[in-house]
Amino acid sequence: MDREIGSAPDKRRACWRSNCKHLLLLAYQSFGVVYGDLSTSPIYVYTSSFSGRLNLYQDEQTVFGMFSLIFWTFTIIPLLKYVIIVLGADDNGEGGSFALYSLLCRHAKLSLLPNQQSADEELSTYYRNGYISQNTIHSPLKRFLEKHKRLRTCLLLIVLFGACMVIGDGVLTPAISVLSSISGLRVRAKGLLNGEVLVISCVVLVGLFALQHKGTQRVAFVFAPVVIIWLLCIAAIGLYNTIYWNPRIFHALSPHYIVKFFEHTGKDGWISLGGVLLSITGTEAMFADLGHFNEASIRVAFISVIYPCLILQYMGQAAYLSKNISDVSISFFGSIPEPVFWPVFVISTLAAIVASQSVISATFSIVKQCHSLGCFPRVKIVHTSRWVHGQIYIPEINWILMVLCLAVTLGFRDTTLIGNAYGIASMTVMFVTTWLMALVIIFVWQKNVISALLFLVFFGFIEGAFLSSSLIKVPQGGWVPFVLSFVFMVIMYVWHYGARRKYLFDLQNKVSMKWILTLGPSLGIVRVPGIGLVYTELVTGVPAIFSHFVTNLPAFHQVLVFVCVKSVPVPHVAPDERFLVGRIGPRAYRMYRCIIRYGYKDVQKDEDNFEHQLVLSIAKFIQMESSSSGSCDTSPEGRMAVIRATDASGTTLVMRDGDETEANRNSTFTRSSKSETLQSLQSIYEQEWTSVGRPRRRIRLELSDEDNMDSEVKEELMTLLEAKQAGVAYIMGHSYVKARKTSSFLKKVAIDVAYSFLRKNCRGPAVALNIPHISLIEVGMIYYV
User: Fold this and answer.
1) Which residues contact 5 (CB under 8 A, 6 or more apart)?
2) Distances (CA, A) of 50 to 14, 44, 46, 160, 565
3) Which residue stretches of 93-252 are H helix?
4) Burial of 260 (0-12, 13-18, 19+ CB in 10 A)
5) Residue 694 CB neighbour total at 10 angstroms
6) What is the C-alpha R_g of the chain?
7) What sign results for the dihedral spanned by CA atoms 150, 151, 154, 160?
8) Most confidently modeled of 190-204, 598-612, 688-702?
9) Three-class SS of residue 596?
10) Residue 335 phi, psi (nearest 5)
């Protein structure tokens, strides 16, 4: 007894040690993914800040004022706004502008996604712990936003604009980081030409993007030591320069020097803010990459290492400049003591490569979120980690970023011009986050409007000042992020608009249940053995394309399942809550609906046992319906129930491996609707899967013997089992979307040209849904929207 009592504290202590170890491991990895960009800013901040007319003010007072600006900017934006406040607004562990938008859509009816259901609100991750549902929030602002669709559209456009600026960051960050670092060679290698620097930079950039397919976790373990060594080096150099050149720089920690700076420089000092904001570029990555780690690990890494090391470096560099103002164009590399120059240069080059990683990872996350919420064309998404959600790689986006990055590097050939573009992109993303956070404070955190206004005014004023200074530099390279954002935003909005119009067409042209009932249980055609999975985007009703199937196909499967794979505005959906099953029409029709729900951070993997999970879910629904139990949702078509597909209990169907004894296999022999040719193709298909190292798991379903089972239920389950063993066919509509003849010219261009082009050049829906081609049936249909 005493041992058991004494073991409780030991268990808590062991658990605490385990949690601390995990936290420190994540904090260690975050250096290689999150903080690379932020930690390399000292290479170009002072050079960019003094690149304009501020170069005329070459005195100690100006340098002191510049350092004071950098110190307080770094303290207010990254530390106060992001680390202390914004990181607390995570969406079940996920961050970024779309995570904030997702939170808002769940706590107020702001979403433009058309296929949302009340059953989605019952998901365990839909509402955060301690917060109430949107129906109990009574706010005039909430009612005003929900009432006006144009305001909700504007909110979506703002979020998309911020997402596009993050993609712009993914182009500009590698360009300025690598080019700035490689340019340091010219400090010691005087004969090195600018063209040779560009070639070396381009080779490094190509190698960086070629590494991305290895995945975030592997890259983090390789890059984290580089960033840590880099931070310790620049902190030591900063401390050395402070003591050696000008210890009085400590006085500049007072905000009084900021006032004196603007009194002395006036408008020229305000214009220099565009260079100062480069000291906080990469801050948004702390929030955008939150899903790769966690809130606590990012805070620990920033407060314990990032903040003190970078402040020491900026201080030391300012101390050096106060006595060597003529070296401002090479301020960072000029301030490095000569004996350690080459080791620090090598580390700076490696750190510049790491700097690009954080924004590239954030870009992948943003594109995945846009895709899941219906705002980006279908692309290939590779889940690079078995254990950590959110660590993904998107090949198409990776190579597009590489080409654009090389174009910017070769086009500008100057870090000052790239810095002008980079500053605008970074500050715009932060500004968008500030506005979204103000709404989160009201709708999600349930604070009063005054708190939200204080947050908005305080941080909005500071970021607005930086942004206004940057906009003056639009002709000097600042136009790049706007052009990139415009292109990506057009792609996103056209895709969202076209997909929404297609869904509304389906919604308005649903097949009436009266027409289906008049056809009778046979639906007016021959019902052959097998299961037909009819894919649709509708969550209620029967799509118009079904009548197209019935009138064009001579026979249909004896069991029909209308499958809808949809995204919900939550980061992750638990596997036990993924399947929502219901019935369409009377029992004799053997027609069901299955809605498969994914979060915007979930990756749909190839699941060999998807068909078995689906059949088990339907079987459990049949038994649940007969006993009138379970979490069912009443609708005009019948009841929808959340089915725990991963739980085999509650059903009389038993799942067995297909390689059991021959006698066991023959005991459940049923007729098959497949011809010998089709069966031979199926065997060839399975052999191909085995040859590429992905053998398909063969599983058989059997009906267990239960004497007390209702005869109708048993008959329906037997029909379902026989249909499964006869074969499963995947039925999709090969749709062509066209604008009506009466549509406006702009709509015709958007639908007939832009949306049609995107549909033809993105991944097909069958590929995106991992549907085997051997079992796919497509029927063409034209949508006039």
Assistant:
1) none
2) 53, 10, 6, 33, 54
3) 97-107, 140-147, 149-183, 185-188, 194-210, 216-245
4) middle
5) 10
6) 30
7) negative
8) 190-204
9) strand
10) -85, -5
Residue 750 burial (CB < 10 Å; 0-12/13-18/19+)? buried
Phi first, then psi, for residue 733 (nearest 5°) are -90, 125
Strand partners, 655: 701
DSSP sequence for 760-780: HHS--HHHHTT--GGGEEEEE
Q: How far, CA to CA in Å, does 594 sit from each of 98, 127, 563, 566?
A: 27, 24, 5, 11
Contacts (Cβ under 8 Å, ≥6 apart) of 132: 446
d(CA 584, CA 529): 19
What are the pLDDT digits (tens) for 714-740?
A: 888 888 888 888 888 888 887 888 888
Residue 598 has what DSSP assignment? E
Strands 776-784 and 728-738: parallel
720: nearest Cα among 520, 526, 561: 561
Give me the half-sphere count of Cα atoms (radius 13 Å) on the Cβ side of residue 757. Answer: 8
* Of the candidates 345, 444, 357, 354, the residue with the CA atom closest to the CA atom of residue 43: 345
Tell me if residue 279 falls in helix, strand or coil. helix
Give the C-alpha separation, 91 to 26, whole Å.
19
**Closest listed residue to residue 675, CA positions, set 529, 524, 526:** 529
The first and second tokens of residue 235, run together, are: 């902190």
What digits encode the pLDDT tens for the residues 204-217?
889 888 877 776 55
Q: If pLDDT is split at 50, 70 and 90, which confidence band does 420 have? A: confident
**Between residues 316 and 193, the one the model is more confident about:** 316
**CB 246 within 8 Å of CB 321:** no
CA 327/CA 710 separation, integer angstroms: 89
In tens, the pLDDT along 454-488 reads 999 999 999 999 999 888 888 888 899 999 999 99
For residues 217-250, one letter each, b for 16 or more C-beta atoms within 10 angstroms of the residue's C-beta and e for the rest, the string is: bebbeebbebbbbbbebbbbbbbbbbeebbeebe
**Which residues, 6 or more positions from 299, have their beta carbon under 8 angstroms from its beta carbon?**
83, 87
Q: If phi over 0 gives left and psi between -120 and 50 gives alpha, with beta otherwise, what is residue 290?
A: alpha
Helix (H, G, I), strand (E, B) or coil at 729: strand
Residue 635: beta bridge partners? 638
CB atoms within 10 A of CB 766: 16
More confident residue, 627 or 97: 97
Instruction: Report the chain's mean pLDDT, rounded to a whole number.
Output: 81
Q: Do the beta carbons of residue 352 and residue 180 sit within 8 Å?
A: yes
**Bridge pairing between strands 579-583 and 591-599:** antiparallel
Q: What is the 3-state secondary structure (H, E, C) of 527-588?
A: EEEEEEEEECCCCCCECHHHHHHHHHCCEEEEEEEEEEEEEECCCCCCHHHCEEEEECCCHH
